[in-house]
């Protein structure tokens, strides 16, 4: 099966857009609930859990998209071409991205970036773990 996989640049742009969108909406929510906002409230374990939850659940509900990927016209698919499932996304985001990143002190994230840059199929460690790839929609 011939795939039009998304490369490093467009994937990075989509992640940055998602981070900005999440920061904006989380900041707004904190402002409404607490009457103020501090950049310190957007760090630590709580922020990482919100971020990971967003990247794990949203693609399952929204057919492989998160907001940044939708804007960039790319999406996550399973290697068999079907829609991603909760188990795919838990393996991809929680295990392959979040936990592996913590265990390796971020080294796996750097290796993933190189893999997406140099491999013909543009798949990173988290893609292999989750059985997914990112393609143009």
Automatic annotation (TrEMBL):
Going by the UniProt record, its keywords in alphabetical order are:
Cell membrane, Membrane, Transmembrane, Transmembrane helix
Q: Which domain of life is it from?
A: Bacteria
Main location class: membrane
**Membrane association type:** Multi-pass membrane protein
Where is each RDD domain found?
A: 5-130
Q: Where are the transmembrane segments?
A: 12-33, 45-68, 97-119
Task: Give the residues annotated as coiled coil.
Answer: none
InterPro entries reported for this sequence? Pra-immunoreactive, RDD
A Pfam family cross-referenced in the UniProt record is: RDD
Q: Where in the cell is it found?
A: Cell membrane
Cross-referenced PANTHER family: LMO1584 PROTEIN, PROLINE-RICH ANTIGEN HOMOLOG-RELATED
Q: What is this protein called?
A: RDD family protein
Q: Which organism is it from?
A: Sediminibacillus dalangtanensis
